[in-house]
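Predicting holo structure, guanosine-5'-triphosphate bound.
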Amino acid sequence: MATIQWFPGHMAKALRQVKENLKAVDVVLELVDARLPESSRNPQLAELLNDKMSLLVLTKMDLADSKQTKAWVNYYESCGQPAIAVNSNQGALKIIEKKLMSMLADKIAKRQARGINNQTIRAMCVGIPNVGKSTLLNRLVKKNVAQVGNKPGVTKSQQWLKAGKELQLLDTPGVLWPKFEDELVGKKLALTGAIKDTLYHKDDVALYALEHFIATNPGALTERYRLTQQQLQEPVVDILLMLTQKFGFKDDYERASERLIIEIRKGKLGCYTLDKVPVNASKLKD
Ligand SMILES: Nc1nc2c(ncn2[C@@H]2O[C@H](COP(=O)(O)OP(=O)(O)OP(=O)(O)O)[C@@H](O)[C@H]2O)c(=O)[nH]1
Ligand SMILES: [Mg+2]
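Done. Tokens:
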């Protein structure tokens, strides 16, 4: 597929602002998608945060394979990167506040020793578009103050949100990076909705998705689309054409690709994780 490549001006600006605000915050919430923790981790942001205390939050855990999510969290923790997985649409998120407070315990104690008592913790939330930054922050402040939407690029500018006296949270626009060195990363990001739909070829992404499910969960395809095991042995292009027919779209495989992508995003083919936990820990950010 043609390389997905662009870097709109507002992302460059957002990245600059993240850099400017780093000194003003105590901690950073770096959000990644639990379905693709490494592929959804912006290397430019990760580099900026290198020396900063940060909590890696794997969002949308309800859509990811739970075993793999656990393995990813363990993996990051074992590399010294505090990490946590959440479903921001359900359950209490007290666990995040608790984790932040334990990470900041030393800092808070030092401030107290200097006589600063009523301390406000400032946290900045960063990550790629559509990863769930505004949703998570709304939950933490218990109000729907930040605009959310199921498409990339909803938040256009930074916004401070207050969660009581003790916690202030900075919402930021999603930022991607100028070039995906690995074509597969672009396909994964497109499949999970981090890239504007007009910027990629839907059939390329659908073919990748079919390959992934044939390799990892063929039963999901046979069950939902009544494809036989034998049909799944055919080349993926032919399988996409079979699906196009089954959807009643004649030869409009673009439309069928779009339908398949939407269904996968909604979890109609079950929970899935696109990134494999690396075997070699040295590959991770230290
Ligand atoms: N299933 C599921 N959906 C989630 C979760 N968190 C967020 N979402 C959904 O993801 C979509 C994007 O959420 P936003 O909070 O707007 O994402 P964002 O990171 O602020 O996006 P930008 O402002 O565009 O950068 C919305 O449809 C949310 O409902 C989650 O944990 N699980
Ligand atoms: Mg947002």
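Confidence is low (pLDDT under 50) at residues 282-286.
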